[in-house]
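Propose amino acids for all 213 sites.
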C-alpha cells in the first residue's frame, strides 16, 4: 500500500480484506489520511443496511456502496439515516453508490437468476432507482457509461467503473471489461483497478502502464 500512496486517488477495501483485517484496519487507513472506498455491497433489509452504512461512515470512509437490487426503500432509508447521523455528529458523509449489475455478469448469468431483460435495460432501471433514492452515484461496467449518461437519471450521477483491465490482459472472472483509457474516454468519474495492479510483480510499474494507456 505504501508503494502506491500518493499515486492513486483512494484505496478500496473489499470483502476479502475486510473479513480478514476488520473495521479497525479501515479506521487505521482513514486515520492516516487515506481515502477509502468500502466495497462491501450491502444488500439486506432496509434497517440493517442503513445501520451498517452508518457504522461505515463512523469509520471515516470516503465512499461506500449497496446493491441497488435491495430496492428503493432500502436505499431511501440508508441515505436519509446516514446523512442525518453525519450531520448530528459533524462527520463528512460518504459518497453513496448503488451497484447496478456486477461486471462478472453476462446475459447468460442474468437469465440464470431469472432476469430476462437485457443488461443495458437492467442497468438503466437500477440507475433510475438509485437516483430516485437520492444516492450520489452508481457502480456499473464502463461499457454502460455512455448509456447511463444519456438517461435522465444518470446525467448527474457519479459513475464508478470496476472491471478495468490492461488491453493485453486476461479478463479473469470478469465479463464486461474495458481498459483504463477506454473507461475514462467513455465518461467514468472513477475507475477501480484491482488484480491488474495487485497481482503484478511490480505494482507501481503496472499502475503506470495502466495510466499511460
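Proposal:
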Amino acid at each position: 500500500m505504501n508503494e502506491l500512496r500518493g499515486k492513486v486517488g483512494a484505496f478500496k477495501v473489499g470483502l476479502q480484506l475486510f473479513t480478514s483485517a476488520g473495521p479497525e484496519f479501515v479506521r487505521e487507513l482513514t486515520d492516516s489520511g487515506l481515502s477509502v472506498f468500502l466495497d462491501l455491497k450491502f444488500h439486506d433489509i432496509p434497517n440493517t443496511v442503513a445501520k451498517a452504512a452508518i457504522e461505515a461512515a463512523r469509520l471515516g470512509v470516503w465512499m461506500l456502496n449497496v446493491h441497488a437490487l435491495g430496492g428503493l426503500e432500502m436505499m431511501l432509508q440508508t441515505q436519509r439515516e446516514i446523512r442525518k447521523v453525519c450531520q448530528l455528529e459533524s462527520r463528512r458523509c460518504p459518497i453513496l453508490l448503488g451497484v447496478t449489475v456486477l461486471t462478472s455478469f453476462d446475459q447468460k448469468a442474468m437469465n440464470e437468476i431469472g432476469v430476462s431483460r437485457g443488461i443495458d435495460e437492467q442497468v438503466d432501471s437500477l440507475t433510475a432507482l438509485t437516483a430516485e433514492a437520492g444516492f450520489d452515484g452508481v457502480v456499473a461496467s464502463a461499457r454502460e457509461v455512455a448509456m447511463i449518461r444519456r438517461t435522465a437519471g444518470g446525467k448527474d450521477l457519479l459513475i464508478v467503473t470496476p472491471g478495468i483491465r490492461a488491453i493485453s490482459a486476461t479478463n479473469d472472472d470478469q465479463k464486461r471489461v474495458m481498459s483504463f483509457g477506454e473507461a475514462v474516454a467513455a465518461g467514468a468519474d472513477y475507475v477501480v483497478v484491482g488484480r491488474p495492479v495487485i497481482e503484478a510483480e511490480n505494482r507501481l510499474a503496472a499502475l503506470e502502464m495502466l495510466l499511460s494507456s
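The first strand starts at residue 11 and ends at 14. The chain has one domain: 2-212.
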